[in-house]
C-alpha cells in the first residue's frame, strides 16, 4: 500500500473516531443516564409541588370534588355527549383504516405478524385522541386518519418490542399470546420494524401543506427517539431493582412521561397540527395530552397491582415481579389514586377556551382513562 493511501485511511479513521467521541458517545450516555436537568425540564410537577403533594393528607371527602365539577367546562353545556357510541364509531373507523393500510402480502409471515399485532382488540385511545384533537381545532376526521393510524402502528411496534424476552418478557397482550410467542422472536422484531417504517410512509398520504407535514413528521420522529420512547424505556430498564430511597417522584415521572405519555401527547399534537390549529391551540392540546398521558400510566400502575391477568388481558403483577418503579410502589396506592384525580383536573383545565361541544370528546376521554378498569 502506498504511503499516501495509508495516510488517507488513517486520516479517515481518526476523523471517524473524533466524530464518535464528540457526537455519538455523549448522546448514548444521555440516553441511558438522562441528566437531572432534563428530568426537571420534562416534569409536570415542580419540586415544590412534588413535596407539597407527598406531604398533603389523603383526601377522602368527596364534597370538594363535587364543587369543582360544578364549574366543569362541559358539565354545564346544554347538550349530552354520548361517549360510548362515539368511541365505538371512531374505533371502527380506525380499525377499517388499519386493515386497509396493512393488506396481506409478501413477505407473508411479516404481514401476518403485523396484522396479528395491530388488529387485536385494542382500546385505540391514541388514534381516537388524534382524531378528536383534529376536530377540536376545526379539522376533519379523514384528514387526520393517516396520522392516527401511524401513531397506532408505532404504539403496536413498541408493544411488540416491550414483550420480547430481552425486555419485559411477556406472554400475553390484549388477551392473546404476544407476537413473538406466535411467530417467533425474529419475525416479531422484523414486523415491529416494518410497522415503524410504514407509520411514516402512511402518514405522508395525508392531504395537508408540506410545511405542516414536515412539522408532523418531526413531532412523530422525536416522540420515539432518544427524547421519547427510547429514553423512557432505557431509564426504565436501568431503574429496575433500585432502592426506593435512591429515587423520587421526578425520576419516575421522567420514565413515564417519555415511555408512555409522549406518544399520547404526540397523537393529540399531530391531530391539532393537521387540523390547522394555531400555535396557541396546539400548545394547549400538548399540555392537556401530556397530563392524560401520565394519567394513563398512573392508572396502569394501579391496575397492575389491583387487577388479575384475566381482567386486564395482559399479565398482571409483572412490574412488581421485575422490580420496576411504579407509582403505588413509590408513593402508595391511595396517594396514587389521589394523583389520578389531580392529573384529571389539570388536564381539563388545559382545555379551557375551546368550544364546549368540540371539547366534549376529549373531556369524556379523560374521564374514561381515569376510570378504566383494564
TrEMBL record:
Q: Keyword Metal-binding: yes or no?
A: yes
Say which domain of life the source belongs to.
Answer: Eukaryota
Cofactor(s) for this UniProt protein: Mg(2+)
**GO CC, alphabetical:** cytoplasm
Q: Which GO terms describe its molecular function?
A: geranylgeranyl diphosphate synthase activity; metal ion binding
Similarity comment text for this entry: Belongs to the FPP/GGPP synthase family.
Q: What is this protein called?
A: Polyprenyl synthetase
Say which species the protein is native to.
Answer: Arabidopsis suecica (Swedish thale-cress)
Lineage from the top down?
Eukaryota, Viridiplantae, Streptophyta, Embryophyta, Tracheophyta
Amino acid at each position: 500500500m502506498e504511503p499516501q493511501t495509508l495516510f488517507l485511511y488513517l486520516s479517515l479513521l481518526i476523523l471517524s473516531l473524533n466524530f464518535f467521541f464528540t457526537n455519538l458517545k455523549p448522546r448514548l450516555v444521555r440516553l441511558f443516564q438522562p441528566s437531572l436537568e432534563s428530568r426537571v425540564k420534562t416534569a409536570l410537577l415542580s419540586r415544590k409541588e412534588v413535596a407539597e403533594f407527598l406531604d398533603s393528607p389523603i383526601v377522602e371527602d368527596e364534597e370538594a370534588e363535587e364543587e369543582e365539577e360544578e364549574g366543569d367546562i362541559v358539565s354545564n353545556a346544554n347538550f349530552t355527549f354520548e361517549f360510548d357510541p362515539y368511541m365505538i364509531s371512531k374505533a371502527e373507523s380506525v380499525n377499517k383504516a388499519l386493515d386497509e393500510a396493512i393488506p396481506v402480502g409478501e413477505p407473508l409471515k411479516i404481514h401476518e405478524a403485523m396484522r396479528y399485532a395491530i388488529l387485536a382488540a385494542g382500546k385505540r385511545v391514541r388514534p381516537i385522541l388524534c382524531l378528536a384533537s383534529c376536530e377540536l381545532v376545526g379539522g376533519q376526521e379523514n384528514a387526520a386518519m393517516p396520522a392516527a393510524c401511524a401513531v397506532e402502528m408505532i404504539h403496536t411496534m413498541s408493544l411488540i418490542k416491550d414483550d420480547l424476552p430481552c425486555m419485559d418478557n411477556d406472554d400475553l397482550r390484549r388477551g392473546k399470546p404476544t407476537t413473538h410467542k406466535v411467530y417467533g422472536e425474529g419475525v416479531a422484531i422484523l414486523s415491529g420494524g416494518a410497522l415503524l417504517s410504514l407509520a411514516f410512509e402512511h402518514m405522508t398520504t395525508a392531504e395537508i401543506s408540506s410545511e405542516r407535514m414536515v412539522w408532523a413528521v418531526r413531532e412523530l420522529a422525536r416522540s420515539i427517539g432518544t427524547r421519547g420512547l427510547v429514553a423512557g424505556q432505557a431509564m426504565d430498564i436501568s431503574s429496575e431493582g433500585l432502592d426506593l430511597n435512591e429515587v423520587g417522584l421526578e425520576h419516575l415521572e421522567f420514565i413515564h412521561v417519555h415511555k408512555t405519555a409522549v406518544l399520547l401527547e404526540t397523537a393529540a399534537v399531530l391531530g391539532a397540527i393537521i387540523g390547522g390549529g394555531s400555535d396557541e391551540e396546539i400548545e394547549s392540546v400538548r399540555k392537556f395530552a401530556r397530563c392524560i398521558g401520565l394519567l394513563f400510566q398512573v392508572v396502569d400502575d394501579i391496575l397492575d397491582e389491583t387487577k388479575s391477568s384475566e381482567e386486564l388481558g395482559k399479565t398482571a403483577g409483572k412490574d412488581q415481579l421485575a422490580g420496576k418503579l411504579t407509582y403505588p410502589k413509590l408513593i402508595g396506592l391511595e396517594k396514587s389514586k389521589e394523583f389520578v384525580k389531580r392529573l384529571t383536573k389539570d388536564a381539563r383545565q388545559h382545555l379551557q377556551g375551546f368550544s364546549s361541544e368540540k371539547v366534549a370528546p376529549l373531556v369524556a376521554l379523560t374521564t374514561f382513562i381515569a376510570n378504566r378498569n383494564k
